[in-house]
Amino acid sequence: MEQNKLNRSFRIFKTPFDLAKAFAQELVNDINAAAEKQSSFTIALSGGNTPALLYSVLAEKYGSSVDWSIVHFFWGDERCVPPDDPESNFWMVFVKLLSKIDIPLQNIHRIAGENIPEIEAERYSEEILRNTRIFNDLPVFDHIVLGMGNDGHTVSVFPSNKELLFSDKLCDVTSHPVTRKKRVTITGKVINNSDAVTFLVTGHSKARTVERIFKKESDFPASFIRPLHGKLEWFLDAEAGKYIQ
Ligand code: 6PG
Question: Is CATH 3.40.50.1360 what the domain over 7-237 is classified as, yes or no?
Answer without folding.
Answer: yes
